[in-house]
């Protein structure tokens, strides 16, 4: 049985969304981030990334991690690609070329989108969104995102999804871009991207995993 380690309030939400879309059975081990706990080693502390049992699974001490038989993976997008290929049906590749396109979108999400989108998330999370410093950080991050957003905007013209159907590619790119959504102006010049984000987030499986995320402690 496939096992996913990681709470919904983490990048584990990426494979967890994919699994909700595909209806694949799995075991969920809700490991939380050690930095969210006052003392991750206190007696009775919830399962967390600093515990020896988890470090034996992912020595990086980060979630998500995945076990599938003898295979253990970290890196949320690698986990998504593995699940999509093996269990995803139409969410995964139908051919070698399809697999290559999905890998392209994974790397696009990880390198062109996430590093800048997460700057926006951290700025908002630190309560700086409405300060001149925070506004400056978010504006610069949005400028860095303008080129990948323009690429997405053109690609999504006349298309519902990144590929010819909803797939793991949409999950990976949407989840990385979502980090930037707390900056209101981010998508103003990109209506196709805004429409596509809304469609991704309106999916029943997304709504289901989002409700589970909201039910977890902040
Ligand atoms: N590139 C990794 C990043 C993993 C990551 O940073 N996970 C966070 C939670 S979203 C974490 O476990 N942080 C705990 C820590 O770094 O100590 C991935 O996509 O899986």
Structure description:
This protein is of the alpha+beta class. It is 53% helix and 6% strand. The chain is built from 8 helices and 4 strands. It has a 4-stranded mixed sheet with strand order 2-1-3-4, with helices on one face. The protein is globular, with a radius of gyration of 18 Å. The relative contact order is 0.13. Glutathione is lined by residues 10-11, 33-35, 49, 61-64, 75-77. Residues 10-11, 33-35, 49, 61-64, 75-77 line the site of glutathione (GSH).
How would you describe this structure in keywords?
single chain, 218 residues, alpha+beta, Glutaredoxin, Glutathione S-transferase Yfyf (Class Pi), Chain A, domain 2, 2 domains, four-stranded mixed beta sheet, 8 helices, 53% helix, 6% strand, binds glutathione
Characterize this entry briefly.
The chain is 53% helix and 6% strand. It has 218 residues and is α+β, with helices and mostly antiparallel strands. Strand 1, helix 1 and strand 2 form a beta-alpha-beta unit.
Secondary-structure-derived class: alpha+beta
- Helical amount: 40-55%
Mean pLDDT: 97
The arrangement of helices and strands along the chain is EHEHEEHHHHHH
- What CATH calls the topology of the largest domain is Glutathione S-transferase Yfyf (Class Pi), Chain A, domain 2
Residue stretches low in confidence (pLDDT < 50, at least 5 long) are none
CATH architecture of the largest domain: Up-down Bundle
Q: How would the global form be characterised?
A: globular
List all distinct small molecules, including ions and cofactors, that are bound in this structure. Answer: glutathione
Treating each run of at least 4 consecutive H or I residues as one helix, how many helices?
8
- Going across the major beta sheet, what is the strand order? 2-1-3-4
Q: Biggest β-sheet, characterized?
A: 4 strands, mixed
Q: Distance N terminus to C terminus?
A: 29 Å
As for the number of domains, it is 2
Fraction in beta strands: 5-15%
The CATH top-level class label of the largest domain = Mainly Alpha
From the alpha carbons, calculate the radius of gyration and give it in angstroms.
18 Å
Give the total of beta strands: 4
């Amino acid at each position: 049985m496939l096992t996913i380690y990681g709470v919904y309030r983490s990048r584990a939400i990426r494979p967890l969304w994919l699994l909700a879309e595909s209806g694949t059975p799995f075991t969920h081990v809700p490991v939380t981030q050690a930095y969210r706990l006052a003392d991750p080693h206190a007696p009775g502390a919830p399962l967390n990334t600093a515990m020896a049992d988890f470090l034996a699974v992912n020595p990086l001490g980060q979630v998500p991690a995945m076990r599938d038989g003898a295979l253990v993976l970290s890196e949320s997008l690698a986990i998504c690609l593995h699940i999509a290929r093996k269990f995803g049906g139409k969410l995964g590749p139908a051919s070698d070329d399809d697999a290559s396109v999905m890998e392209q979108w994974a790397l696009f999400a990880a390198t062109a989108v996430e590093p800048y989108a997460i700057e926006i998330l951290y700025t908002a999370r630190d309560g700086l969104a409405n300060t001149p410093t925070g506004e400056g950080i978010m504006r610069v991050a949005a400028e860095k995102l303008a080129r990948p957003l323009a690429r997405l905007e053109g690609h999504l013209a006349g298309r519902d999804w990144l590929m010819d159907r909803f797939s793991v590619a949409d999950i990976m790119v949407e989840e990385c871009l979502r980090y930037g959504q707390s900056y209101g102006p981010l998508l103003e010049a990109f209506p196709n991207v805004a429409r596509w984000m809304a469609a991704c987030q309106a999916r029943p499986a997304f709504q289901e995993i989002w409700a589970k995320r909201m039910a977890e402690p902040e």
